[in-house]
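Progress report, Aim 2. The chain analyzed during this reporting quarter is listed below.
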Amino acid sequence: MNTTQRIAAQRYAVAYDALSTSSQEALRRQKDLHNAIKALAPAQNYLSSPRVSTAEKKGLVLSTLSSLPDTAAFIALLLDAKRFALLPAIEQQVQQLTDERLGIVRAEVSSAQILSPRQQEQTKEAIGQRYHARAEVTFNVNPQLLGGLKISCQGEEIDGTLQHQLEKLLKKISN
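Predicted structure tokens for the chain:
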């Protein structure tokens, strides 16, 4: 995605988010957008085809998403503006805006072995304290890690793995 598309996706996401007057409404709208994308997934090729008229695409969207009229209208607007391809990026931006409203930070944690519930809770608390927000954490097991944790959160990578520490030590010794 180029810079122009990224900026456009961000602007559409901000506009969509601005329709919400409360945090709970923003959360509902974010979920509606997610559900709409899932519902339209089987028609992705049809909706992206230049051979299908915008009116036909909008008709499909409006009928498929009849239970989500606001979201259907938003997606129809994207179709009119020839910006339907930005929908996944818009959804991601809307998720971030909703998380900001709710004081949530999302992180992904990788470890060599499954962490105990206590270790998971301690990790969530540490991430929440670092970012001053409630942490929503996805835990993954990566057997290639020797030990320790690798954390990805808000574009920041924190590598506390044994392998990374050994590499740093090796650099220090070789200098």
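The chain is about 60% helix and 15% strand. Residues 47 and 57 are 6 Å apart (CA to CA). These observations will guide the mutagenesis work planned for the next reporting period.
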